[in-house]
């Protein structure tokens, strides 16, 4: 479904994925590591821990290949291991596999830790010794990473405009992701600097837990202003904003007939997260 919106000031887009957008976007698996956390507790190598770990990873490989996400656990023989993997929903199946494979190579660096999680810019992997699948936040390990500010933001009016855009895209992706099965991207253009944002809840969360995670993540991420970018890496979700476009969606826009006016065509379709 497409529709037009006329705007005379900043161009604000909130949109979610349409499958045919993939062919228009430049492929990028976003396999760069953002954050790796290894748990403090260790398992002895002479236990069933390592075989159980690879059993969980093997099952996640099959689920991610089919659904871009998955969860699995092995309870016996002890120790129990629970694992989860999730690609961001704008990644193609091929890019998802690239990102997941990169995370799967790096996560064993934490062995024999009984828990670990790794955030890449396009996917997330975690294993632990308890069922964490419905966990929205984790005060011990939730993490926000902020980048430095842009030089052009030394002007007070430009800084105010930028801060407003950051707040707007965070609000946009938070509200949209909750009603769109956990995923949204947004961008605000106009003026000197554009701002882009993405939010992704893990598929194991319900809508209320997704909202909780994104609200807390967004609140902390706003504190990155006037940084040119920031990432909120939470137990149940991922949120990022940047002055550079980083998500894999092509947007069809046209300049309107009046100077400074744009017609924005926004594609909306709910995603079924399997």
From TrEMBL:
It is found in: Cell junction, Plasmodesma; Cell membrane. Residues 31-132, 141-246 form the Gnk2-homologous domain. InterPro entries: Cell2Cell_Antifungal, GNK2, GNK2_sf. GO terms for cellular component: plasma membrane; plasmodesma. It is a single-pass type I membrane protein. CDD domains: Gnk2-like. Keywords: Cell junction, Disulfide bond, Host-virus interaction, Repeat, Signal. The keyword Repeat applies. Residues 1-27 form the signal peptide. PROSITE patterns: GNK2. Belongs to the cysteine-rich repeat secretory protein family. Plasmodesmata-located proteins (PDLD) subfamily. This is Gnk2-homologous domain-containing protein. It comes from Tripterygium wilfordii.
């Amino acid at each position: 479904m497409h529709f037009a919106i006329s705007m005379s000031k900043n161009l604000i887009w909130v949109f979610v994925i349409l499958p045919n957008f993939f062919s228009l976007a430049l492929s990028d698996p976003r396999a760069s590591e953002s954050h790796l956390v290894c748990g403090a507790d260790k398992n002895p190598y002479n236990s069933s821990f390592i075989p159980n770990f690879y059993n969980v990873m093997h099952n996640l490989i099959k689920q991610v290949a089919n659904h871009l996400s998955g969860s699995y656990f092995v309870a016996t023989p002890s120790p129990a291991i629970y694992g989860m993997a999730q690609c961001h929903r704008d990644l193609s199946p091929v890019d998802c596999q690239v990102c997941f494979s990169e995370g799967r190579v790096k996560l064993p660096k934490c062995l024999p830790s009984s828990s670990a999680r790794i955030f890449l810019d396009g996917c997330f992997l975690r294993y632990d010794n308890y069922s964490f699948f419905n966990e929205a936040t984790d005060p011990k390990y939730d993490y926000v990473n902020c980048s430095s500010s842009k030089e052009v933001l030394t002007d007070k009016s430009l800084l105010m405009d930028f801060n407003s855009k950051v707040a707007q895209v965070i609000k946009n992706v938070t509200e949209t992701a909750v009603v769109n099965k956990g995923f949204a991207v947004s961008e605000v253009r106009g003026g000197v600097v554009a701002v882009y944002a993405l939010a992704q809840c893990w598929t194991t969360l319900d809508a209320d837990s997704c909202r909780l995670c994104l609200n807390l993540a967004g609140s902390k991420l706003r504190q990155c202003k006037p940084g040119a970018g920031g990432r909120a890496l939470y137990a149940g979700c991922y949120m990022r904003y940047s002055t550079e476009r980083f998500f894999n969606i092509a947007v069809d826009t046209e300049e309107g007939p009046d100077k400074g006016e744009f017609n924005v065509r926004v594609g909306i379709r709910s995603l079924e997260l399997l």
